[in-house]
Specification:
Layout lengths: L4 E4 L9 H5 L4 E3 L5 E3 L8 H10 L5 E4 L1
Antiparallel strand pairs: 1-4, 2-3
């Protein structure tokens, strides 16, 4: 089990959809084009989530452990 916790700072999300494109199992855009967490990542999905944190143009994806 992973200790990684991913969250979204909704006020920083610009609705670009890059998170959903990279990790559709974890992220989705709602009707207002704000990223939401579908579920927390499994250990084998952590690399994908780390990539999303780095490429998010609004710095809205936050990883904590």
């Amino acid at each position: 089990m992973t200790d990684m916790i991913v969250s979204i700072i909704e006020s920083d999300c610009i609705g670009c959809g890059r998170c959903e494109e990279e990790c559709p199992e974890i992220f989705e855009l709602d009707n207002d084009l704000i990223s939401k967490i579908k579920r927390q990542p499994r250990e084998d999905e952590e690399d994908c989530v780390v990539k999303v944190e780095k490429i998010c143009p609004g710095a809205a994806v936050v990883i904590s452990e």
